Amino acid sequence: MDQQTKAALKQNDAFVTTTSHGLEWASENRKSVIVTVSLLLLVIVIIVLAGVFYNKRSNAASVAFGSAMQAYQTPIAAPGQQVPPGVKTFASVPDRAKAANDLFMACANQYNMTPDGKVCRYFGGLTYIEQGQNGPAEDALKSVASGWNSDLGALAKLSLAQLYRGSNRDPQAIEIYNQLAAKPTTTVPAGLAKLQLADLYTSEGKVDQAKKIYAELKDKDAKGAAGLIAAQKLNPTAPAGPGAQQQ
User: Fold this and answer.
1) Model confidence pLDDT, tens digit, residues 148-171
2) Separation CA 95–CA 117 (nearest Å)
3) 154 to each of 44, 151, 208, 239, how far by Cα in Å?
4) In the chain, % of residues over pLDDT 70
5) What is the pTM of this model?
6) Side-chain half-sphere of 47: how many Cα atoms within 13 Å?
7) In terms of C-beta density within 10 A (0-12 exposed, 13-18 middle, 19 or more buried), how is residue 123 classed?
8) Which of 32, 91, 202, 228 has the most CB atoms less than 10 A away?
9) Residue 80 main-chain phi, psi, to 5 deg
10) Is 155-247 a CATH 1.10.3470 domain?
11) What distances in angstroms separate CA 153 from CA 17, 190, 212, one per listed residue?
């Protein structure tokens, strides 16, 4: 018998031995194997069902968000203003905000774990502000600001800062603007946060602090939108646009 045949037989013997041992182990541990396989199948079924359930809720949340936005974008008609037949309108911004807020918050509460549910809560905060309900607005915006979506959270923080400015809580607004400037996002770049901070300082009469921010933006972002706005703030009489940078 040649060496190649012997090697092949040894491999076959090893395969048979391994298979036999495997079958013996499976036979001895049959109950354990069945339980393990059953648990794996159960986990797979749960994952599939969870995915189907989540997609269904996400679609429902998207529809609810769309309905709320439709209400939020409904036009305002002044008393006596002629409106085309079949066109829905609201008599005032607070009236429209109230109607839209009911829909946004219903969406947020029912579909809180979905992306559209989070967005609904953000708009719920905005429509609370339009109604003059600062307390509920602050709660809604804080909830969104602390969420995992940094872009949406930054918008919520920016709206919170505006809310604080409007309710004589400038120190809290300043803190938020500094946070946003230190950790910029796609939705709220550092330049935007700094411009808002400079505007706040100007409104407080702290002109030197505002000018310092504008000067930094002008130097660091000369060709960017924030830099151009800062340059215009420093020299209001200069022509607006890129040409102003050539002075």
Assistant:
1) 999 999 999 999 999 999 999 999
2) 23
3) 37, 5, 27, 32
4) 74
5) 0.75
6) 6
7) buried
8) 228
9) 85, -10
10) no
11) 61, 14, 28
For the CA atoms of 130, 133, 134, 136, the dihedral, rounded to the nearest 10 degrees, stands at -110
Report the alpha-carbon distance of residue 99 to residue 67 in Å, rounded.
11
Tokens of residue 48, six digits: 């599939």
Per domain, the residue ranges of the chain are 44-77+86-146, 155-247
